[in-house]
Amino acid sequence: MKMKNPEIELIKNGKRLDGRNLDELREIKMEVGVLKKAAGSAYVEWGKNKVLAAVYGPRSLYPAFLKDPTKAMLRCIYNLAPFSVDDRKKPGPDRRSVEISKVSTEALESVVMTERYPNSVIDVYTEILQADAGTRCTALTAASLALANAGIPMKDLVAACSAGKVSGEVVLDPMKEEDNYGDADLPLAIIPRRNEVVLLQLDGRLTREEFDRAYQLAFDGALKVYEMQKKTLQDAMKKSAVVGD
Ligand code: ADP
Q1: Residue 179 alpha carbon to ligand 1 centre in Å
Q2: Where are the beta strands (DSSP E) in the chain?
Q3: What is the rounded CA–CA span in Å between residue 214 and residue 32?
Q4: All domains of the chain, ordered by start, with CATH?
Q5: Which residues line ligand 1 (CB under 6 A)?
Q6: Segment 42-52, tens digit of pLDDT
Q7: pTM over 0.90
C-alpha cells in the first residue's frame, strides 16, 4: 500500500531506517514441523513479519464434481490475522487476500506434483500473524517449506523476495515504512533449479534501468532465501533421524 511520504528520511548516508544497507535482507528465521496435527507446517520470521503455514492433505475432495481424475487440486489460502496490522483488520477474505491466494496457488502449482494425487485436494493455509511488508513473499516461502515438510513430491522449492524503490534508490526487501512511503515494490518468486519466475508483481513506477536492478536484487535475495530453506529442511531431517520424530 503506497501512501504520501510524511517527510520521513527513509535513507540517510546510504543506510535505511533499520540500519540496513540498500542490498541487505532483513533477518530471517525458519522452522518446520511446528504443528503436529498438520501433514506439514512451517513458521517463518522475516524481519517483523511472522507467518505460520500448514498443509492438510492430500485428502479426498468434496463436493465430488470438483474432483479431477488426472491431478489433485491445490488451494493456497493467504490470511492476514485481524491483530497482524496496526489498525485491526476486519476478519475474513478481502480483495487483496483473494488476489494473493490466487497468485500463491499458481506459483506453488508449478512445483507440486499434483498428478500423483488424482481426485484429491491439498490445502495450504498461510496465516500472517504479524505483518510488516513483504508478507506474500514470506507466506510463499513458508508454504513451500510446509509442503516439503509434508513430504509432498515437488520439483523444487519456491523461493521469494521483494525489492523496491525508496527515496530514489533501489533497495532489497522493503519493510513497512519503505513500502508505505516508497515509490515502488516488486515481489518476485522463483523456482531456482529451473531458473523460472513464478510470481512477479509491481506496485508503483520504475524506469527500465531501475526495474532491471530491482529484479536482479530480488532474484539474488530469493536465491539466499532458497539456501536458508534447504538448510532448514536438512537440519530438520537430521534432527528427526536422531530423535526418531
Ligand atoms: P505485502 O505484505 O506482500 O508487501 P502489500 O504491499 O499489499 O503486500 O502490503 C504491504 C503491507 O501493508 C503489509 O505487509 C501490511 O503490513 C500492510 N497492510 C496490508 N493490508 C493491510 C490492511 N488491510 N490493514 C492494515 N495494513 C495492511
Answers
A1: 9
A2: 11-12, 15-16, 28-32, 40-46, 49-60, 73-80, 120-130, 159-166, 169-172, 184-191, 196-200, 203-204
A3: 30
A4: 25-238 (3.30.230.70)
A5: 1, 80, 85, 87, 89, 96, 131-136, 176, 179, 185, 187, 203
A6: 999 999 999 99
A7: yes
